[in-house]
Amino acid sequence: MRPVLILTLLAAAALTGFSQCREWTWSEDGATKAREQEKVTLYQDAKANGQYRQALPPLNWLLKNSPKLNSSIYINGAEIFDKVASMEKDPVKKKVYIDSLLLIHDLRIANCGEEAPVTNRKALMAAKYYANEDGKEAYVLELMDKAFELNGNNIMDGTIIPYMQVIKINKLKLKSLSDDDVLARYDRVMSILDAKIKVASSKANQDQANRYREMKDDVDKILFSMVTVNCDFAREKLGPKFRQNPSDISTAKKIFAFMLQDKCTEDPLWLEAAEAIHKVEKDFGLAKNLGIRYLVMENYSKSAQLFNEALELAPTPADKADILIYLGSVEAKTGSKAAARELFRQALAADNSKKEAYEKIGDLYYQSFNECKKEQNMADDRLIYLAAYDMYARAGDAKKMAMAKEQFPSKEEIFLVNYQAGQTIRVGCWINETTTIRTRD
Questions:
Q1: Where are the domains of the chain?
Q2: For 123-173, what is each residue's pLDDT tens digit?
Q3: Which architecture characterizes domain 283-354 according to CATH?
């Protein structure tokens, strides 16, 4: 059948009504029912054999004569028209097939309902073929906008990145969108992704939650490629709005993301925005970033509080280990070395690949010379450097191993106290570890 007739038949099939087509509704007339069953078999066999063009005549007969037969004729029909459109080389015929593909979604809505999910699928097909087609860009954006409005948080995952790409085309190619237009759509997308992360996390599906977080990063990259959203933008355009209404979490999230991207988290505005978000949304990444910021500011009590919150929210053993290392760093900064070591050990128990924890323990030992030395003999006082070396070795840090070795006792120093190289000995003070006698020379 010629493609121009295909579109004509589809248009003629459009009916009003919103009945669901989940059950097969065969004609009560025996002859008509037999014809329907024959057409279903013909198009299904052709589709199964990859003969998509041969599937069109029986499919179109069903769409025209039995539009409420079953939703499968629309689902399979969309796949068939997609295949035919993809294979067609003639641009005129290809356009007819694409328009037929889009129209079949309208027919499904008209005859079977399910407007939201079907509009979502139609929008994806429109983006596939027409996103950058001259004269079609605005139409695709309008359709995408409608899909997001109808579906909200239920939008199909695969629609999110194409939506951002369609926004970019309209922004840069047509110059039809202002920065505010783009940011409003960006805010909608990020809100949906946050909701999806929350649902995935509640179901303990951390792989899915992490995929959504990766999508957020991709969305940010597309935004940054079309709108200059640096620290100055956040301060000048978003700062005043946020300070007028600190409970405006949408604006707070933009400030947080944009200033984090532009690496100006030392700005008080970033911290204010982050705190505002943290009050209403407990999130691992946010608690972690705030904890780091307060650690840099030497506000150790606030930093520890936030890291402990992050620890409770940590989605993976690796994340838990990272937070334990940060907590250990807080204890080290406040002089609680034994407590810091315990936290570093807990990090290794959570994820033994976190060799940084060994390095941190080594630093604790290395920096304990003054508090542990008894000044009775240098051999005993220098034992802490042997213990530090052991930790640096477990961390695989050759540079710090060499640094510690320079502080080992000398052969003369161990001789004076009757120690032997290779001898096992316990390091005293708070360290209380066993090590092996070695010398620097």
A1: 1-113, 283-354, 368-436
A2: 999 999 999 999 999 999 999 999 999 999 999 999 999 999 999 999 999
A3: Alpha Horseshoe (1.25)
